[in-house]
Amino acid sequence: MMIRVMIAQQKKKMPATTENNHNQGSFLGRISIRRNQVMSMSMDGSHDTECEEMELFQRHVAERFAELLSCTDEPEAFMSIGWLRKLLDEFLCCEAEFKAVLLMGRDPFQIAKPPLDKLLPELLDRIIKSLDVCNAVSFGIDSLRNIQRLAEIVLSALDQTLIGDGQVRRAKKALSALLSAMLHEDKDGGITKGTERSRSFGRRGNKDKDRSAAAPFRSLSWTMPKNWSAAKQIHAMSSNLAAPRGNESSGLALPVFIMNTVLVFVLWTLVAALPCQERNGLGTHFQMPRNLSWAQPITALQERISEEWKKKEKKGTVGLLEEMQKMEKIAQWLLDFADSFQFPAEADKLEEVKAQVEELADICRKMEEGLEPLQLQIREVFHRVVRTRTEFLHVLDQAAKLNIPTS
Amino acid sequence: MEKSFSFSSYHFSAASQKQRDKDLESSSSIRGGPQWKSAGGEEELAAFFHDHDTILQVSEEVDGFLETSATTPPLLHVPDCVHRLTKILDSMVYRYNTGKSKLGKDAEDDDLFLAVVDRISKISAILSTFPCDPSVLDKTTFSLEKAMSFLEKHLCTILQDPKSSTTTTTPTSSNHGSFRSGSGSESKPKPPKKSSSFGSLTQVHDAALCSPFDLVNLSDPPIIPTLSSHQDQDQDTSFPAFSPEKVSLMNKIASAMIAAGYQTECCVAFASFRRIAFKTALQEFGYVSVGMEEIHKMQWEMLEGEIATWNNAVRHCITVLFNGEKKLYASVFPNQQSISQNLLSDLARAVIIHFLNFAQGVVLTLLTVEKLFKFLDMYETLRDVVEIAIADGSYLERCRKELAHEIATTKLRIAEATMAMFRDLENSVKGDNDRVPVPNGAIHPLTRYVMNYLEYACEYKDTLEQVLRQCLHDDYHSCRYYSPIRKIELEEDDGTPKNSALAIQLMTIMDLLSLNLEYKAMLYKDFALRSVFLMNNGRYIVQKVKGCKDLHQCMGDNWCRKRQSGLKLHHKDYRTETWSKVLNCLSTDGLQGNTSSVLSPRANKDKKPKQEVKDKFKRFNSTFEDIYKTQSSWVVSDEQLKSELRASIAALVIPAYRSFYGRFKHHLNSSRHVDKYIKYHPEDIEALIEELFDGGTSKRKS
What we know:
The complex is a heterodimer.
Chain A: H1 2-21, H2 26-42, H3 46-70, H4 81-103, H5 108-112, H6 116-158, H7 165-188, H8 230-238, H9 253-273, H10 296-313, H11 322-339, H12 347-403
Helix pairs in contact in A: 1-2, 3-4, 3-10, 4-9, 4-12, 6-7, 6-8, 6-9, 6-12, 7-11, 8-9, 9-10, 11-12
Chain B: H1 14-18, H2 22-25, H3 42-47, H4 52-71, H5 80-97, H6 107-127, H7 134-160, H8 201-208, H9 244-259, H10 263-284, H11 292-297, H12 300-332, H13 337-363, H14 372-392, H15 400-431, H16 445-459, H17 461-473, H18 475-481, H19 501-521, H20 527-547, H21 549-586, H22 589-592, H23 595-599, H24 608-631, H25 639-664, H26 674-677, H27 682-689
């Protein structure tokens, strides 16, 4: 609104300055330049459209994340696979709208001038950084699949009419490996091998019990480079993220800032939710802008996830993914059951086991159905931002050519 | 007979009890069915004696039981042979676990063991449908679980270390083929055909600052494609390195595990270990994981090397490793197609996405001209190796669509980058406005660079054509990337591929180059030198085009003809500009009227014509000398052009001088200092003309 008032004022002043301008000195000359700018913006009414577009973009971003905030039920419970898929959908929509607001029908010139001349390259740099995060979480999904296989072993062991020592022993091995995979996921870079405990095989007098036998297996940096850290990457993406101030806060700098924020937030959420290499210190906030209506749902989401993260960080778990949280509890319960198992088990205990197994089966089913699409979506994000980067580079390139005419 | 003792020679000792595997012992000794409570006890296990025959006998009884229970209504009573066989299995597993026996040492022992496992597995399946004493089922399933557990461990041990020879077997024990997939008719990875690098334009210009005459050979000999010596590495690689015996054993173990419902354990073991094996194999090949940001920041010199490694690794992986892997699964899971497919799909997906990430990362770097050929190498690898493997690989059914899409996307990115690099080349050619002319009208480094670049580009003719078309056909890009400088005017050319996108691209660059050269020519103040410069560069361009079949084909005969007639015009300009002055000196116009009097010795009273002749000779001498002085330092590097020029000059000057010389020579015979006026014989002039355009290398011998 502010802008419109200012423009209106400028418009009123115009005739006077125009008259004087013809035979006046440099001061008025400057005014006339400003006038021309205003003129060119408002001539075809495009400026008003632009304001509307920007307001609409902000509102849509707010709405999208508000909806994510309100998701509590199946199949899109907070931080579940379904929820993450929705999150990525929303991200892709925001991204498309952002490009429309910033690029469509716009003179490349406008994009190449301050403050965008600085902000856009920063965004492009963030995009490069985001690609590594996409890859890391995508590999994380591979290790979730491995966990899913282990859970399926537990299912085939315990989903039986008779639960005897053999079944319990089989389940116990898988459960140990599963819990160990969850605990060590961070450090292993995603690969957990076998149903484990084969490390101790053959060593006489090995005191390993099933419980601790799943020795963490060091993978040979197949997935991400050895010293790569998701937390550091996210930090590098968010550290120089500053809200536009003053005049900039209403111009094109704003959608760029919104897009930056959305990008960092979404990737941060993925890293928190999925197994990912090196996440120490991920819980530290990146500064979310206050008092901006579009940012409130994101801020709320971020606070909620941060809290969850703080609770879990010390335990070094597989991530905040709802399915994993549930699975961890079930696995723990089943392992306790297995530890104290005596054949034949009491009937009511078996009932409980049955309930737990059913729930585990439900989780496995969700993973089976959801992980692959989620991984494809992450890949889609990867391709999309690469494409966006190319498009922006092209526009900047064009602007540069227009700017410096070949002599 | 010896094999029957492999389970029989155990003597209980107190010491071995302490070495027991707690895992094996588990909690079974506490409980157990009433009949055979002590079966799990370690002493019993150890003391339990089985010879081959006993095992066979019990097995037969069990078979009988299995047969009848399949047809008759369930029995409440489980026969004793079941208990005995369970006990036998327990003791066998115990011996394996304690190292008293070894799996893979003797194929018959292995088979005997696995046959017992199979029977117990069947018994367990049948008993679970029985309303019998649950403790019996508990016993058999527990026994089976221990056996499975052992098999899984053993499988992991084999998988973990393919090359170890701990489980040596007699070589006759297997029918399975060898896995040395690198040998024989197996297709080896084709080396990237052109792997040399191309300098950047700025490098050329840096070099141009040194000495103009060093430029003669600068980047001139066409870069000869070199084969990377890296290629021989995979010659002896056998992958996977499992001996046939081990493959056979893995097959037996996998079959037993699958039959007993332990398929998932088996697959998990394969998936993890084979993934690690792949990673290791590729690391040995020099390929390591690099992050996208890291690639983006990498220096080109280093990235160039990484790309070469990548090309080799991808080819090796697809042609050697994947095929080896396929064979391995075919042998280990001969009747489990879906298992092989799933395992292979997962593995291939992970590995290929990894490869593609690298390519995607490379494309994110600053797109400058010198990178083009490396990018095209990657494109070709993707197209010729990966894409084909995906399309052919029925074993990749599960991920084929996704991978095909991924590869297509990556190829498109490379194609876009190629377009961007051509734009970069165009801009570089357009924007190359150095204000210092190349000395002596020599070939400009830009000309050399561009022509060599285009010639080299023709090595990738088909790929480039494909790439450019891909971008042109993409509407989205066509309006953004395609420069409108040249509309298709190829139609008039005969013998030219009419619709070649590459030809259009090459034309565009040639045109830009010509425009730029014309601009550069203006930097010379001497009009004649302008013509020489244009001739030199024009000649070089035409010769390059004619010398390269592909380039010639793209540009067409008509283009060459046009260029050549253009050169003739420059030649004419040069002749007029330089030599008409000389011819003017030799004109007999002023002398024509009174030739007879000049020639007549008696007309000695008239000194004026004699003086005129003297002046004419003097003017000719000085004009010619000036020209000689400047133009002998000019450069014409093309020998043919040089001799053409000299011949044309000689044809123009020599006859005129000869006749002038012939007519007026004796006129001055009587004069003093005749040498001053008649410095040159026509032959001298001829010789001197032969020294023109030598870049000042042949000094006039005086």
